[in-house]
Amino acid sequence: MDDPIKSIEENLFNLLIRKRKVLIPGKGDVQDYSNGTKVTFHFKTEASYSDDDESDMVMIDDSKSSNKPMELFIGKQFKFPLWEEWIKHMRLGEVSQLSLDWTLCRDVYPLLSKSYRNFANPQDHNHDDPAKRSHCCGMAKQAGTGHKDLDDLINKRSPKQLRFTIELIRVENPNDVDKEIWLMNENEMQENIPVLQRVGNQLFAAKQFEEASFKYRKALAILEQLMTREKPGDQDWLNYDLGKIPLLCNLSQCELYLQQYYDAIRHTDEVLEKDPKNVKALYRRAKAHSAVWNVDQARKDFQRVSELDSTLQSMVKQHLIELDQQVKRKTHEDMQLLKGKLF
């Protein structure tokens, strides 16, 4: 017998979803989102504090700024059922927008946001008490979410509405979904690393840099997990640690194409800690430093590349010339701007 409450909920969802604003229509047909389908999407959440004026929107969350898209498995009790139903109406690549009255999401969104932030920035939440991670909104009002802006949404200045923007970037059939790391045994982990690297390389060759990054990151996460099972400094631990070098190099190249320069610097730093003479890492770090105006660091890395590989001297020379030209242009622009302010 059908659940009448669930039926009412689905009808409400469908009514709301039909009102969504499609910003980019996406490609192809709406896919078959059977249970177990894995979807990956970016989202943005903004709060409005007036009834009909969207000019006062305040940003709450933006997954692109964290470079960590959200994932969900269809039919696995996602925290925000409306979002799951909404995604089931979307085409791949679609970007759509939906505004909801705060009263319809106040019991759900703050905890969803907390879970996402803990996932996106786990190092910021190591102090979190696991016993407090799954509580209802009423308890959240007492215990807090650990994020001041979310606590303010719940307890102080509640918005009139939230506006959500979702971009569907990947849909994986249940038969094609990568097995989660925590479900793998040691042999499966070891077997998956070269597979993920190979697929990442294929995606990179196809200029699918974000998808390639995902494969490299998963392989690195597996290596990290394997290292936790070994004693630091033992041979197996060292082998796993060295195995990270090509993955980090490949990931940093993706990040350069995606203009994620600080991530590229961080990952090439890690390579160079293990292998100080790694020319690829030095060259990519030099380009990343150059892109974010770390001029001295860029020059130092370019010069070191030239010292380590004489065949690259002409290319490095050209990079240094371009860097000097950029500095001169920037200095001239700054002087003109300053001159305008002074006179």
Alpha-beta classification: alpha+beta
Major beta-sheet overview: 6 strands, antiparallel
CATH architecture of the largest domain: Roll
CATH level 1 name of the largest domain: Alpha Beta
Radius of gyration: 24 Å
**What's the CATH topology name of the largest domain?**
Chitinase A, domain 3
**In percent terms, what proportion of residues is strand?**
5-15%
Number of domains: 2
Count every helix, treating DSSP H or I runs of 4 or more residues as helices: 13
Counting DSSP E segments of at least 2 residues, the number of strands comes to 6
What is the straight-line distance between the termini?
80 Å
The rough form would be described as globular
Order of helices and strands: HEEEHEHEHHHEHHHHHHH
List low-pLDDT spans.
Answer: 125-142
GO molecular function: peptidyl-prolyl cis-trans isomerase activity
InterPro entries: AIP/AIPL1/TTC9, PPIase_AIP, PPIase_dom_sf, TPR-like_helical_dom_sf, TPR_rpt
Domain AIP/AIPL N-terminal FKBP-type PPIase: 28-169
Keywords: Cytoplasm, Repeat, TPR repeat
Summarize the structure.
The protein contains 13 helices and six strands. The protein is of the alpha+beta class.
